[in-house]
UniProtKB/TrEMBL annotation:
GO terms for molecular function: DNA binding; DNA-binding transcription factor activity. The keyword Repeat does not apply. One of its GO terms (cellular component) is protein-DNA complex. Residues 12-64 form the HTH lysR-type domain. Transmembrane segments: none annotated. Keywords: DNA-binding, Transcription, Transcription regulation. Coiled coil: none annotated. It comes from Streptomyces pratensis (strain ATCC 33331 / IAF-45CD). It comes from the Bacteria. InterPro entries: LysR_HTH_N (IPR000847), LysR_subst-bd (IPR005119), WH-like_DNA-bd_sf (IPR036388), WH_DNA-bd_sf (IPR036390). This is Transcriptional regulator, LysR family. Belongs to the LysR transcriptional regulatory family.
Length: 301
């Protein structure tokens, strides 16, 4: 088109849409304008250029050689404009930059990686880092900004931490030394926690300890206190060395295979619930977009 003749955005969109649809009715529906408006715009462009861009008959619409040339010339510029506007919109909404997401259970890592890929597909200017964390570091990581989101075990009851909906659940199991009498059982009960020292995590709130590492069984029997562990590898090492037992998920058996540790399912314990956590100070568009994707994927199974 003549550089001296201004071209409206709608004119470009109408031309490119008609060049793709080759049908006035479908083009009008796609752009939300009337069919007569599409025809009027195309005729106006052709008058300014001085030659037809489309061959029209009662049965078909086709691009002329000039129309094909114009489409080839316009498409990359139009795509560039759309991408530039999209990037500006994402920046304005906060959907650009880097997001860091933590998790405590290895079996949740693949869910977060899939969510990260999907977020990047939807918002190419946004990158996600996924990192494994420990029980005790979860709240600290959120408060210091080391992570923006955390997929971790419930319960969490902290005034500065927002707990999202439950993302997934897993059946409980008890990690026991391979030589312990409990290792030969098909299942265990919470009452069996009275039979061995219970290895507990360091630096976790009491509400979490009460839910997962109780001091008494449901029947009131005292649970012997075992050593304290700071990482999951510490737990497994202590269990394998015969220093005690520790509750975990049945899925752990597939992710942490050791000859000196046996994972025995609980037959009558509630499942472990996992939810996305964030600091009350962290609530931008990236965080919400990623959380929505995680929930979508978890719901889809």
């Amino acid at each position: 088109m003549d550089e001296g003749v201004p071209v409206e955005r709608l004119e470009i969109e109408v031309f490119l849409a008609l060049a793709e649809e080759l049908h006035f009715g479908r083009t009008a529906e796609r752009l939300g304008v009337s069919q007569s408006r599409v025809s009027q715009i195309v005729k106006g462009i052709e008058r300014r250029i001085g030659a037809p861009l489309f061959d029209r008959t009662s049965r078909r619409v086709a691009l002329t050689p000039l129309g094909r040339q114009l489409r080839t010339d316009l498409e990359p510029h139009h795509r560039g404009i759309q991408q530039a506007v999209g990037r500006a919109t994402e920046t304005a909404r906060g959907l650009t930059g880097r997001l860091t997401v933590g998790y405590t259970a290895a079996w949740n890592g693949s869910l977060l990686l899939e969510a990260a890929d999907r977020l990047r597909t939807r918002h190419p200017e946004c990158a996600v880092d996924i990192l494994e964390d420990s029980y005790g570091a979860t709240l600290r990581s959120l408060r210091t900004g080391r992570v923006d989101l955390h997929l971790a075990e419930l319960p969490v009851d902290e005034p500065d931490i927002v707990v999202g909906p439950t993302v997934c659940t897993a059946a409980r199991a008890l990690a026991v030394p391979a030589g312990h009498p409990l290792a030969s059982r098909d299942t265990v009960s919470p009452e069996d926690l009275a039979l061995a020292p219970l290895i507990r995590p360091a630096d976790v709130p009491q509400v979490f300890l009460d839910a997962h590492f109780p001091q008494h069984t449901p029947g009131g029997r005292p649970v012997p206190a075992g050593p304290v562990a700071r990482s999951w590898q510490d737990f497994l090492t202590l269990v394998g060395a015969g220093k005690g037992v520790t509750p975990t998920c049945a899925l752990a058996a597939a992710f942490y295979t050791r000859q000196d540790v046996v994972h025995v399912p609980f037959r009558d314990a509630p499942p472990v619930h996992y939810a996305l956590l964030r600091s009350t100070r962290r609530a931008d568009a990236k965080v919400h977009a990623f959380a929505r994707i995680v929930i979508e994927l978890a719901a889809a199974g």
